[in-house]
Amino acid sequence: MGVGHKIEAGNAGWTFDGKTADTFVEHIRQSVPLYEEGHDLVCQLSDFFVSDVSTCYEIGTSTGELLKKLAVHNQAKTGAKWIGIDPVGPMIDKARNHCAGIANIELLHEDARLFDYQKADLIVSYYTMQFIPPRDRQQLIDKLYEALHWGGALIMFEKVRAPDARFQDIVTTLYADFKLRNGFSGDEIVSKTRSLKGILEPFSTQGNLDLMTRAGFVDITTVQKYLCFEGFLAIK
Questions:
Q1: For residues 184 and 79, is the Cβ–Cβ distance under 8 A?
Q2: Could you tell me if 41 and 47 are in contact, meaning their C-beta atoms sit under 8 angstroms apart?
Q3: Is 0.85 surpassed by the pTM of this model?
Q4: E strands of the chain, at which residues?
Q5: How much is the average pLDDT of 58-63?
Q6: Among residues 17, 28, 106, 189, which is most buried (max CB within 10 A)?
Q7: Start-end of H helices in 16-108
Q8: Confidence of residue 117 (pLDDT cuts 50, 70, 90)
């Protein structure tokens, strides 16, 4: 099934592997509201947490777009380290090409669930946690919390479910309208939805707050929200 931008995915068969990386950036820009604005916001938020001696991570870095923006935004902090982690080989290959020449970026073909983190001041998860199997999600959030220095931050953007069926119907319809306006066909929208069954598993806003609270975060706020897309800032 075609889901747009020459990406093919079967029923319940969406994958970031294979040729998806070739057109992923354009696909995601047209699929997620305020995608670029979210990148800018993450960079602005990083000012409050990144120092010249910071280690910073992005889990699910995909093609390295946001990681590169963060490194460039903080280029005056020459001692900061930016580490991108992704389990998909073609994505890491694209990221290495995209970030070539930036000395303080390191890109690792690793699983964020199994990775041994250094102590960090900032961890970014930009529409990544929703693809982690629900059974593993709490354990990963716990691990990220433990990796942070006191005063460090987790910035997590997620697709979220609405709190009840009526609101879910409204946001689902408006999101479909958004994709139609951005050039996706009805068939592509339906095919993408079918391909993500059992793979993209969003939690509600409260479900995400509960994950972070159970891990130990106390100071949590929403920093961006548009329909079913929400950005959270959690400080340890």
A1: no
A2: no
A3: yes
A4: 55-59, 81-86, 105-109, 120-126, 148-159, 219-226, 229-235
A5: 97
A6: 189
A7: 20-31, 35-46, 65-73, 89-98
A8: very high
Q: What is the pLDDT of residue 12?
A: 80
The pLDDT tens digits of the residues spanning 2-46 come to 876 777 878 988 888 888 888 888 999 999 999 999 999 999 999
Q: Other CB atoms closer than 10 Å to residue 168's CB: what's the count? A: 14
Distance from C-alpha of 112 to C-alpha of 129, rounded to nearest angstrom: 10
Token readout for 18 is 């294979």
The tokens of 165 are what? 């069926």
Residues paired with 122 in a beta bridge:
56, 153
Q: Is 22 exposed, middle or buried (0-12, 13-18, 19+ CB in 10 A)?
A: middle
Please tell me the distance from the alpha carbon of residue 236 to that of residue 231, in angstroms, as a whole number. Answer: 17
Rounded Cα gap, residues 107 and 171, in angstroms: 35
Q: Are 128 and 208 in contact (CB under 8 A)?
A: no
Name the residue with higher pLDDT: 25 or 99. 99
Instruction: Please give the single-letter amino acid code of residue 98.
Output: H
Structure tokens at 181: 């306006």
Residue 236's nearest CA partner among 122, 82, 140 is 122
What tokens were used for 12?
């319940």
Give the separation between CA 71 and CA 67, rounded to whole angstroms: 6
In the DSSP assignment, the letter for residue 78 is T
Please name which of 12, 22, 17 lies closest in space to residue 4, comparing C-alpha atoms: 22
* Strands 219-226 vs 229-235: parallel, antiparallel or unpaired: antiparallel
Q: What is the largest CA-CA distance in the chain?
A: 49
